[in-house]
Each structure stands twice: as C-alpha cells, then as structure tokens.
Amino acid sequence: MIKTGSPIISIYTEMTPNPETMKFVANKLLYPGKSIDFPDVESAKASPLATELFGFPFVKAIFIASNFVTLTKTSDTADWADVIPSIRQFLKEYLEEGKIVVNEENGYLSLFLFRALLETQEFFNNAFVRAKSNRVTKKAGHSTKFAAVRAAAPGLYRHNEKLTPAVAKL
User: Which element (helix H / strand E) includes 48?
Assistant: First the structure.
C-alpha cells in the first residue's frame, strides 16, 4: 500500500468591501455547510483555530465558514501586506497538521449559541412585556421565550422545561 502523507494545503486571499477585513480561502473544507462568527476572544472557545488566531495581536474578529476564514484586523495595524504572509503560513501549517477548526462536541458551541439566543429572546420579551403590561401578556411572553429556545436548541432542555445542569450554571 502506498501512503500519500498529509494533504498539501494552499491558502489564497481575497479582499472584501471592508478594508479592515481579509478573506483567507483554503483548498479544504473547514466548516462544511456552516458558519460561525467570533467577535472577540471570549466567544472563540468553541474553535481552537479561532483561539489561536486571536493570539496574533492584530486580529480583532474572526468569521469561519465553509472553506474560508475571514479576519478583521485592528485599525492600528498598518497594512494587510504586513500580516498576510504570517497568517497564510499559520493557516497552512494548522490545516496540514489536521487540527480541529470548530469543536462542536465539547459543548462550548451549544452554550455560546444558547447565550446569544437567550440575549435576543430577553430583548424581545422585555419589549413585549413593556408594550403589554397585563398579566396574561407577560405570561404568554414567558412561555413564548421557552418555546423559542426549545425550538432552536432542543437538546438544552429536558422534557419538563428545566435547564440541564451545564446550562443552569450560565
């Protein structure tokens, strides 16, 4: 049997309409059929790749999708030409080593999405309760919140609407 070794990864860049953002495209699927945005380092726990990219001092935000990573640099970084070679080399080595791009199994991603969903639902529910101050409307708003969360993240709720232990610690 002939062993072919590690796949050779190539990375090229594409400009975006935002001059602070650059798209790094790989010849390999990174996150097939999905995308995820990491606006800051705290949100990047679900992605070892994003966590390492935030180690570069000029990285402000990260977006990972199908076969590309889009980076937003800090405004004090002079020019993309200064940092593109180091990012391309980092991504090439990272992907050739077969490291994890987004880890959905450890629960970080579910908790991240759950928090975002709760914040959105809380905003709308508060607006709804303020608009209709009677008791029936408040109760309907509360049950609507749970229904929306259950629909978006069914695994995070037990059948009796109590949070799972991991989510209850949020």
Answer: helix 48-53
